[in-house]
Amino acid sequence: MSEAWGLPDESVWGKSRGLDPGLAPYPLVRHLLDASAMALHLWDAFLSENQRLRIAEGMGFAGESERARAVVGLCAGLHDIGKVSGFQFCSRHGASGLSQGLAKDRVRLTGERFGHDVAGLQVTQEVLKALGLVAGGEVRAATRMAEVIGGHHGRFHRVEDGFSTFLGDEVWAGQRAAHAGVVHAALGRPHVPEVFSAAAAVLVCGVVILADWLVSQEDYLRGRQRALEPSLAGHFERSRQDAAGLLEGAGLARVRLGRKGFGEAYGIAGEPNPLQRSVMGELRGAVGEGLRGGILVVTAAPGDGKSETALEAERVLSEVFGTQGYAFLLPTMATSDQMHSRIAGTLSRQAGRGGGLTLVHSMAWLNSAYADEGLEAQPVLTCDGDELVRGRGRVEADMRPQRWLRGAKRPLLAQFAVGTIDQALMAVLPVRHNALRMLALSGKTFIVDEAHAYDPYMQTLLGRLLTWLGAYGVPVVLLSATLPGWVSDRLVKEYLQGCGHKMRNRKGARSAEPTLSGRTFPVPYPGWLYVDGASARSTAISEQRRDEQASARSMELAVQVEPVSREAGVRVRQRQDVIEQLLEPVGSGEGGTALVVCNTVADAQATYLRLRDRFDRRAHHEGGTVQLLHARFPADVREARTLDVTAGLGRSGPRPVRRIVVATQVVEQSLDLDADIVISDLAPMSLLLQRAGRCWRHQQHWTRNGYPDGRGRPAWADAPRLVVLDPIAGTGRVPVQWGEVYSEHLLSTTSRTLSSLTSGTIAIPGQVQELVEAVHADSAEFQWETPGSREEKAWTAHKGKETAERSMAGLRAVPRPSVVAELRNLHHLPGEEDEWELSTRLGADSARVLCMYAHPDGRITLDPEGAHPLPEVADGQGKLPTALVRAVMRRTLPVRADWLTGGDAANMAPPGAWADHPLLGDLRVLRHPLHAGIPQAVAFRDHTLRLDADLGLVRNERDTRRQGAAAGRSMR
Q1: Residues 747 and 603 in one domain
Q2: Would you state the pLDDT for residue 23?
Q3: How confident is the model at residue 400 (pLDDT cuts 50, 70, 90)?
Q4: How far is 969 from 965, CA to CA, in rounded Å?
Q5: Is residue 150 one of the residues assigned to a domain?
Q6: How many helices (H) and strands (E) does the chain have?
Q7: How far apart are CA 337 and CA 267, in angstroms?
Q8: Using the 8-state DSSP alphabet, how is residue 680 labeled?
Q9: Where does the secretion signal sit in this chain (predicted)?
Q10: Which of 1, 31, 413, 745 could serve as 14's disulfide partner, Cβ 3.0–4.6 Å?
Q11: Could you list the residue range(s) of the whole structural domain that residue 122 is in?
């Protein structure tokens, strides 16, 4: 090598901790070559065509993909260049092998400490100048490359002064140039681009992070450490050969599906419905050339097959826009779990077993879809030594493997991902590794189910994410049965802004310049609307197909409003009495199936107890005909109960003779249930219609194909019927027990709207959108007959809350890509925010609780019978096996964090052996004393908590006044 800076010194190390201590640490230059080779392979085999186009365009290399590819390889190859600094002395083993010329600077270079990622940000331009790559127009792009390199630990930083001592003198600068020179030469000496957009840089940073992680796996590094190739050129070639195996071993290799016909692909008997046929036959013409992405909004009544419609749309969109796979996002973990099972079947039927499918939510690894042996993680050595990161005052530890192998970051990278919308929204919050999330999403078709189910805070975050996806030309599909028109219009416009369209002309702009201001994008119901990203041209379902769909799913839903009360001594009937009377034909008569939906867990538990005692003394887990489902069960119990409920009320049967399911909002979305009658507490109109969608859901299918086991509906179920238990109609107010579950304004408006139904029926789907707009329209103001009335105050509170939520989301979200000047704007909040520090949802903080049982002999077990002792660290292992950790976590459940205040903090701490575990250490423990084998409640200041085998976690209020009086009497 004849470069002026000479050869790289291989005593400069890149990896040390976790490797063979009997060998020299892994040379930095070789790790840089590993990362560069992997980045090239990611470009070729992992990135979608759409992502490659967007990156190349962002670098000014449109039509010159190879040039962009080389720059990506260079960014990855320089990601750890900041380690040629005082970092070399943060590990005793690493520093002990340094050559004499570098080792002599120990005292001088360790006077100040910085993270090597920040050091890399500082030195990148210096290194690029040394290579002769920065002159004139390249300066700004070189600055962007420095930001990418400085962001490879998941957080972007600002360039600062005060690094001179840590970075060393010209000898160290020469070594940085020598290391960079080897990488640059291996890549064919690429040129730095003259431009480098922020949006493209975010994707490149994601590639760099992923490349670093893949080549930093412990087993791989140990193998390379033991058998270094004689030459750096040979090492680079070996790294390129290894890249495909590493990608495949991580489950990230891409596959092409063997597309099947509709029925075979989805395991559905019969032909696609008119809505699905429309997407299959008409969407391709609407998409056209597909130059810049597009957004599809699909609306239809519950049970109309929107999920399959979305997957058929994905076939068209992925082909046109060059995306690979899809992310299917839903509102809850329960709905995600069920959709994961459906997608798994769809992929397997299309020869997709080799394709990566992941379940993506915070508790996904507890799902039974993951076998215990699949949970062991390969350690990834992403940071070494005791490197202090300025401003945090703590040691930066290795990236915990669970965080990306089975945690919240890595699963989204799989070709096919099903999970909660929260995992995607993290991409637009200023958390670590948001660039990696954006990389994961931007290569797929992005599908959001139940788009109506998100509050204003989440809708704002979703809108910001759609703006970024629009900038990347990502095809988007939004699905909903009850989406207000103004919400869909806002989301479409957010997407189009990302595509480059302006909401309004800026001052001084040509008035003829087209804008989105004044335009609307109404979505037919039922039907779909496709809006092209390049032209903002909209195309809707044909009227013929829309009419066919409306006719095929036409249903007259009988709506019975029952004024009810919870209070004695009022003139309307008690809620529980009404429910029992309505269910008499089911529980004691001909049988059939009924779904009772309650607004709170406490109501569901109380209702279940009354119905169980009235119709079947057996508990749910004993095979009783009355079942209970809500979110406050341990994870394993909830999963089992969800499967039990969906099996009994599902499409394929076997259909039970009689079944009453009492549930909370967990059944509103994406659970495929069919009941002969639905009884619901009053809820906002959109949610009532969702609940009603579980009534006679599969009637058309069964009419065509026969009922499961030939058992039809009972004689009393002569028509689909929704019964609404309306306390406002009964007492004029919302029950205090409901707290702030729903806006009083929405409940009151829904109550008035239901009372105005002159026929006592709702035409499905004909009246659905009309009713949704009547309650959920974004009206600027209402006209009140009585100024200052309760209704007006409720509306004011409702609008104020919505405005506050949107404002908070706007403050927390990252900026739109068009206004990002520096990448550090993507981490604009103070501190080191990670997923657990910023929420995608507003509301009370939650904690994860594990219930234990304290026996009289001092033993603590996971069950009251004492058969399952607490897992302990096995002799010589030093840590709990993953299977045991999972067994513990599957017994946990979420509760509001404020429920645990006023308790004995020390008694709620997990066992000492669990304290340092990344999952078990964060648990809160409820130790139930056992008296005569019966678990006793755990007392807090104003309530008690008790895990009941049949009811789940029960919260009972304590009468603190009575207790205080009793205490006073005892003192006297």
Answers
A1: yes
A2: 93
A3: very low
A4: 6
A5: yes
A6: 35, 26
A7: 18
A8: E
A9: none
A10: 31
A11: 13-249
